[in-house]
Amino acid sequence: MRHLLGSTVSAFALAAAIAFTGAAAADVSIVRDPTEVPAPITRSAPATVTIELQTVERVAELNDGSSFRYWTFNDQVPGPLTRARVGDTVEVTLTNAEDSWMPHNVDFHAVTGPHGGGMATMALPGETKSFSFKALKPGLYVYHCATPTVAQHIANGMYGMILIEPEGGLPAVDREFYVMQGEIYTVEPIGTQGELTEDYEALVNEMPSHYVFNGKVGGLVKDKPLEAKVGETVRLYFGVGGPNKTSSFHVIGEIFDRIYDLGGVHAETLDVQTVTVAPGGAVIADVTFEVPGTYVIVDHALSRVEKGLAAHIKVEGPANYEVFDDREGEQVTLAD
């Protein structure tokens, strides 16, 4: 996958380079469908919102020909996206599956209270714990397992997000997607076949073997790519589970129309190329597609592409040569 961003990126070499092939090592997918976004809230008064999480440890496909024992919320990575409204009461119930090897809990960054609910939900295998909180501040917030070693639980897949809408909600868009970035640490290098082994030493030294969107190498390339149409405005709810690496969130070939930086909803920045998103942080990003084609989501720390980090947005519709002309021999000459 060398020279992906060279001067002759025909048919976008980066997209081709992430066309993963090979036999699957596991027949179950860990990938959370990016379209699994609850509908915008239309009610005008606070209500009670119920969140039910089950912590499940399961072996699933990490890359073509390899698998990994993930620790999950509700069987997939990331955990489910929940939508509430500022002023709502959120009731959280967490059940740790009976066949888990480990205790688990959940810490919501949206919570005002000790440990974000982590102490209240600490559950041994087979136990169920619960708590409730008031959604005081709007924004897009990460949640994650906070059982020591916390970084280990997060790296193995235990993270997700909750959107607390402001009163009146967010401006309407045509499509909404849910994407989270994570790191996986294995003894074996990327490309190794079979079930891979968790590497605790690499974790504490912050040296991931794989980078993933929605849990799997290529999970949002061949398994569940994002899809849109020319003229549509897409909203990306993007977060970083981590546990360690900051993302330089970027869509190759597009400019974000608007971002709600740091996951807040009170301030907007227009016309942004790349967004810094910290581990345990989030951003809401809107982008309108004027030209058809396959757009690639990356972390602009581009060496991470070599370890699996890319996602596709496939945009269908008529060509728009006034905006982008790629017809051979008929290229538009741009003024200096």
What's the gist of this structure?
This protein is mainly β. The protein is built from four helices and 20 strands. The protein folds into two domains: 13-24 and 173-316, Immunoglobulin-like (Sandwich), CATH 2.60.40; 48-165, Immunoglobulin-like.
Q: Could you list some keywords that capture this structure?
A:
single chain, mainly beta, Immunoglobulin-like, 2 domains, 4 helices, 6% helix, 38% strand, disordered C terminus
Task: From the 3D structure, determine the CATH topology of the largest domain.
Answer: Immunoglobulin-like
The radius of gyration is 20 Å
The top-level CATH class of the largest domain is Mainly Beta
Q: What is the number of helices?
A: 4
C-alpha geometry: globular
Order of helix and strand elements from N to C terminus? HEEEEEEEHEEEHEHEEEEEEEEE
What is the residue-averaged pLDDT? 91
Main pleated sheet: 6 strands, mixed
Number of domains: 2
The CATH H-level homologous superfamily of the largest domain? Cupredoxins -  blue copper proteins
Beta fraction: 35-45%
Report, as a whole number of angstroms, the end-to-end distance. 32 Å
Give the beta-strand count. 20
Order of the strands making up the biggest sheet: 11-9-13-18-15-16
Low-confidence stretches: 1-25, 332-336
SS class: mainly beta
Query: Which percent bin holds the helix content?
Result: under 10%
* CATH architecture designation of the largest domain: Sandwich
Structural features, described:
This protein is mostly beta strands and 336 residues long. The protein folds into 2 domains: 13-24 and 173-316, Cupredoxins -  blue copper proteins (Immunoglobulin-like), CATH 2.60.40; 48-165, Immunoglobulin-like, CATH 2.60.40.420. The chain has helices at 13-17, 150-155, 200-204, 219-223; strands spanning 48-63, 66-73, 82-85, 89-96, 107-108, 128-134, 139-144, 159-165, 175-184, 194-195, 210-213, 226-229, 233-242, 247-252, 256-260, 269-272, 274-277, 282-288, 293-299, 311-316.
